[in-house]
Amino acid sequence: FDILFPHQLEINGFELLPVKVEHTSVVTTLPFHHRDPFDRLLLAQVINER
């Protein structure tokens, strides 16, 4: 796993994003129909990193 996972990220063009303070501030602005905390944080990252 330690070798395969980073390799798969690289060949598929994925980038790991750290959780930043800027992301957490966006979470508070999201509509509450996004109730799952992980989904809310993921959406906040997308909005902030666009």
Tell me about this structure.
- The protein has 50 residues and is an all-alpha fold.
- It has a domain of 34 residues.
- The chain has three helices and no strands.
- The protein is elongated and about 35 Å long.
- The termini are far apart.
- The mean pLDDT is 92.
Q: What descriptors fit this protein?
A:
50 residues, mainly alpha
Measured distance between first and last alpha carbons: 29 Å
Helix content: 55-70%
Low-confidence sequence ranges: none
Main beta sheet strand tally, sense and closure: none
- The whole-number mean of residue pLDDT values reads 92
> What amount of the residues lies in strands?
under 5%
What is the structural class?
Answer: mainly alpha
| General form | elongated
Count of DSSP-assigned helices: 3
Number of extended strands: 0
Question: H/E order of the elements?
Answer: HHH
C-alpha Rg, in Å?
13 Å
